[in-house]
Automatic annotation (TrEMBL):
Topology versus the membrane: Multi-pass membrane protein
Keyword annotations from UniProtKB, A to Z: Membrane, Transmembrane, Transmembrane helix, Transport
Organism: Faecalicatena fissicatena
Compartments where located: Membrane
Transmembrane segments: 40-65, 86-109, 129-156, 168-190, 220-243, 264-285, 305-332, 353-375, 395-417, 438-461
Pfam families in the cross-refs: SNF
Predominant cellular place of this UniProt entry's protein: membrane
Protein name listed in UniProt: Sodium-dependent transporter
Length: 462
């Protein structure tokens, strides 16, 4: 049975759901550590410039394709041009790959939240805690199951009653929490064993001050690459998710305005996450603590919380709760995209497809968890990093498929169907598309060239 097409109730519901997809672990964990690694203010400036150019173009394209075709990515591209049907299938692969590991990371966050809730924080701040947890056989699977069940429940309830209602409730709460912790972070100060006093405001300077001193072309290219891959992941573009959400948007919604709001939401949360994490890590661990990369959240931050004394545990509970919310709304969007696409292919109800995708997610996520123990193996990726199962999935989806899909999409829109289709769609509600000229230039020239370079560099071809 084919179900009646679901819709968001209006603009706010759509913006909050799309922002819910965009705001996730990428903003709260990946953005701050890239910022710390790439010289604070310098990374911020580059990222902001990319959001306003590439981010805006890619997001507009995805959402407008969705609303124009009123279809999921799988069919939408074929509807635009029947020879380009393959692009829909390629796009579908990305959420299918991300689904395998996103709930595993969601499970790690749930585990930290629950542990802070029931016990004191001394165990979590030990160096070996995180590794011994993810390499254990049962615990990561149990917490992943918990997180996945919650995700499936929201998707099962559908677009308006599930995703929209849930996002309306979660997203404002998330902003309040992050703002509260960020302000608190700035008030911190600490005297280390050598008698050096470090304050939150000094940490803010480390975060915002653009360090141009040792800027070389090679370093700048590295920053550009990091910022670009962060942009894809963070805005959830080029993976069919925003096409799917776009297909639920009613014709009278002002796309121009909604897209700006989604970008402001996503970048604002990332910015605040940096303001919350970088000064705190700087105060308690100094500049060394910030070089910790991906382990920032699960290894460095618990140390920071432990150094804060009694209030640390409360902040930690609030932090992991917020992080859990952010991860949940993102995971919901990944699962929704898979369910919605499958509903269209197999003409089955949402409930049945939820069950099928739920089982797929469960089996693959268990395999990813086991990738840290019984199924452990390592491979060297074309870009030189050594990876295990979860990293491999992340690499294929983010570094390989996303730039490739963006490249193909820009060729399809820029040169085959023509940018006018997107411009007309944005102007459908009578509103003038102010950045139409910029859009045309970007989609025809800048996006294909830059995506090609990004693809070649991140796959190690050049
Ligand atoms: N945009 C999300 C984040 O920033 C991640 C995500 C990627 C969500 C892909 C859905 C799909 O964490």
């Amino acid at each position: 049975m084919k179900e009646k097409k679901s819709n968001f109730s209006g603009s706010i519901g759509f913006v909050l759901a799309a922002a819910g997809s965009a705001v996730g672990v990428g903003n709260i964990w990946r953005f701050p550590y890239l910022c710390a690694k790439d010289g604070g203010g310098l990374f911020l400036i580059v990222y902001l410039a990319l959001v306003l150019s590439f981010g805006f173009v890619l997001l507009t394209t995805d959402i407008a394709i969705g609303r124009h075709t009123k279809q999921n990515a799988l069919k939408a591209f074929g509807t635009l041009n029947s020879k380009w049907r393959f692009l829909g299938y390629l796009t579908f692969l990305v959420p299918a790959l991300i689904m395998t590991y996103y709930s595993v990371i969601g499970g790690w966050i749930t585990k930290y939240f629950c542990t802070y809730l029931v016990s004191d924080d001394s165990i979590l701040s030990q160096d070996s805690y995180f590794t011994s947890f993810i390499t254990s056989k049962v615990s990561p699977i149990v917490f992943m199951l918990l997180f996945l069940a919650l995700t499936a429940w929201v998707v099962y309830r559908g677009v308006e009653k599930g995703i929209e209602k849930f996002s309306r409730f979660i997203m404002p709460g998330l902003i309040l929490l992050i703002l509260g912790i960020a302000i608190f972070s700035l008030t911190l100060s600490y005297t280390d064993a050598n008698g050096t006093v470090r304050t939150g405001l000094q940490g803010l300077k480390v975060y915002l001050y653009p360090d141009f001193s040792s800027l070389t072309v090679k370093r700048f290219l590295g920053v550009l690459l990091d910022a670009m891959s962060q942009l894809f992941f963070s805005l959830s573009v080029s993976m069919g998710i925003m096409v799917t959400y776009g297909s639920y948007v009613k014709d009278d919604v002002n796309l121009n305005k909604s897209i700006n709001q989604i970008e402001i939401f996503d970048t604002g949360v990332a910015f605040l996450a940096g303001m919350m994490i970088i000064p705190a890590v700087f105060v308690f661990l100094g500049t060394d603590g910030m070089a910790s990369g991906p382990s920032l959240i699960f290894i460095s931050l618990p140390k920071v919380f432990a150094s804060m004394g009694a209030i640390g545990r409360i902040i930690a509970i609030a932090f992991f709760l917020m992080m859990g919310f952010a991860a949940l709304t993102s995971c919901v969007s990944v699962m929704e995209t898979l369910v919605a696409n499958c509903m269209e292919i197999f003409h089955k109800s949402r409930q049945k497809m939820c069950a099928v995708i739920g089982i797929y997610s469960l089996v693959t996520a268990v395999l990813i968890c086991l990738g840290y123990n019984v199924l452990y193996f390592e491979v060297k990726l074309p870009n030189g990093t050594v990876a295990q199962l979860l990293d491999i999935m992340d690499y294929i989806s983010n570094s390989f498929l996303m730039p490739f899909i963006s490249l193909l999409t820009s060729i399809l829109i820029g040169w085959v169907v023509g940018p006018k289709l997107i411009i007309d769609e944005v102007e459908r509600n009578g509103e003038h598309f102010r950045r139409a000229k910029l859009y045309c230039f970007m989609i025809r020239y800048a996006v294909p060239v830059v995506m090609l370079i990004l693809f070649l560099v991140s796959t190690g071809i050049v």
